[in-house]
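--- STAGE predict ---
source: upstream dedup step, 1 unique chain passed
mode: sequence only
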Amino acid sequence: MPTTDAELRRRAQTAVRRILERTVTTAQVDELALCAAEQSDTFGGWYPPSLTHGQAGLALLHLYGARAGLGDLDAAVAHIREAVLATQVQPLESHGLFAGTSGLALALADVTRDEPRFRPSLDRLHEQLADQVLSAPPHRAERSVSDLDYDLITGAAGTLVHLSSVTEPSERVAEAVSALTDYLIWLAQPAEASGTPHRWLITPGFYPPVGDYHASYPHGYLNLGLSHGMPGVVAALAAAWEAGHRRPGHLEAIGVLTCWIRGRADIDGHGPLWSDGVPVDEHGKEIVADCAHDRIAWCYGTAGVAGALLTVASATGDEELHSAAVAAFDGVLARAEHIRPLSPTLCHGLAGLVMLALEFAPWSAAARERLPKLVGQLLDRRDPDRPLGFADVEKPGHPVDDPGLLTGATGVALTLLAAIGEERPHWFRVFLAR
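--- STAGE serialize ---
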């Protein structure tokens, strides 16, 4: 559902051209990444094969820029070649979607649609990815689960999202899809260990080494974010189901997770809203707590959960769930009238809200009505004095000139191209599993 306002289109094209011009060469990008690392306390580093923080993501930007008549396909080809060649120096150890082999494969697959000569390389990469999954399958140990095992960012869910999109998969790729699907189905089945409400419980010994998890969840928690929690898992299972990779217990697992997610919603004057996670007490019982506020973000909060539920509803043909997902997102838009994301970026910022509004627009009158305003707000965040125009804002007054897709200007530019384009981009699959 493209934005038709002529002035918004002109502004978007100007902003995108600037980012394309500043990210043509590896030397330009390396300089930007070095600058971001110096500015940031949390910048995770630049790695060329990474989809979200590397040249695989930049290849997508220049690919979609070329398709829109604003850029050059040669730049996309150069970036994807650099991304692939970099794996010879530092091989991809993870199969994950955001910084591992499946993310590189997703970018290469999209470039291959315009440059078929990459087909043999893509086929080899898919075989390598399948071998990676099958040589080290996710472990099944209750109370020893980490979000790194299952999530959309690094875990089984994200890799399943990409592999489910492979048309005519080889026997080895199909086997890897089955292994990932079976693991996520296992995760959704009843727990057997004492004090374990669900197999996806994360105990304190497996918390990420950042944030205040130990203070917020002293006895363990169940993650509710699309990026690291069960919404991403159920969306991945739905993607596999829709692609025809259907396993024993598959639909039951989708139902269990969907029911659990919906049952953990709080309610305010605009509808359901979801917190970041559900804490458990010392006996493993879920602690019901009010959700004091909603994050207006893709990664955590109601917007991302609504997106996951829309993916499930579309894959399963559940009309009631579809309506509930749309209603939940309409509530997000109502809250966003008063709460605006701090950053303009995809992960936790305004670009993520624009992406989700584009996704919901075919069914949501509120999304269609708000889209021009949201795109305008995103463009208003552009600072022509910054290297790429858009900077990630980790905290107030602390901009970071990140060139990446997830938390940087590449993601903003791709979102703007989607907002003025005629077709739903394939890269939405990275964030919405479809």
